[in-house]
Amino acid sequence: MNMQNLLAQAQRMQRDITSKKEELEKMEFTGKSEWVEIVFTGGRVIKSVKIIKEGAISEDDKEILEDMIQIATKDAFVQINKAMTDKLGQYAGALDGLM
Q1: Domain span at residue 31?
Q2: Average pLDDT by consecutive 10-residue portion of the chain (99 residues)?
Q3: What domain count does the chain have?
Q4: What's the pTM?
């Protein structure tokens, strides 16, 4: 393979990665726990946070609510990471520090 072909292949790969990354950033991912629902974009930007627990939240429940927010956030990130791996396939591992 000559250098021009190699460069052209690298440019195609870069365009493909960029296109798929842009597609992922437009997607929404909903993380849920028992009390909380958080919606993120594929770019890991929070779009909304909803408390889905019925009734008032007491002082004692604040710590539980914080834990539920953390669980919902982790759930959404798991979904984002899976979608990134599915879309970018072989490139996903190489992008860990770039995204």
Answers
A1: 3-95
A2: 86 89 91 89 88 79 85 90 83 56
A3: 1
A4: 0.63
